[in-house]
Amino acid sequence: GEKCRSFIDLAPASEKGVLWLSVVSEVLYIMLLVVGFSLMCLELFHSSSVIDGLKLNAFAAVFTVLSGLLGMVAHMMYTQVFQVTVSLGPEDWRPHSWDYGWSFCLAWGSFTCCMAASVTTLNSYTKTVIEFRHKRKIFEQGFREEQNFLDQEAIKYFRERTEEERAEAGDLRLQCLHSCSPN
């Protein structure tokens, strides 16, 4: 003798838009999680260089952050609709007592894991990029100094070499002039 009713039919008309928005947000949440996971797998199996791997990791972290935020907003919207339905819904459906249950705890756990993973990944990416830039800057400075030193040494060497060749050429001319003179 029990009637099976859908929660969508029980929700007040003013809350049906929020309910559908929460359902769409949940679907987007799952899709963003899948995209983030796919990027992490792509980085794991097909990264050609360290920088490419870090970039894929950073994009995965961004998608995970968006996913976590969207999932938490969707769960809060659904909870709001549930509370309004409990307050304004049909008398025969209203639960006498209720609590948030496992799905609410799972939502908070999921949100916490998403945020922790993405913040850690973005922090690691930023730290590595800054280290690479610093090492590259030091390398370029050292290379420029070494190049300047080599250039000065090369200029000095060629200058001395040219002076020696001119001196030898001048000596040869003098010898030639002395040997060719009629005296």
Automatic annotation (TrEMBL):
For whether the record's keyword set contains Manganese, the answer is no
Alphabetized PANTHER family for the sequence: EPITHELIAL MEMBRANE PROTEIN-RELATED, GERM CELL-SPECIFIC GENE 1-LIKE PROTEIN
Which chain regions cross the lipid bilayer?
A: 27-46, 58-80, 100-126
Which Gene3D superfamilies did the record assign?
A: 1.20.140.150
Keyword annotations for this protein, in alphabetical order, are: Membrane, Transmembrane, Transmembrane helix
UniProt xrefs under InterPro entries: PMP-22/EMP/MP20-like, PMP22/EMP/MP20/Claudin
- Tell me the lineage of the source organism: Eukaryota, Metazoa, Chordata, Craniata, Vertebrata
- Membrane topology category: Multi-pass membrane protein
Q: Please state what the protein is called.
A: GSG1L protein
Q: Where in the cell is it found?
A: Membrane
Gene Ontology cellular component list? postsynaptic density membrane
According to the lineage, what is the superkingdom?
A: Eukaryota
Keyword Membrane assigned to the entry: answer is yes
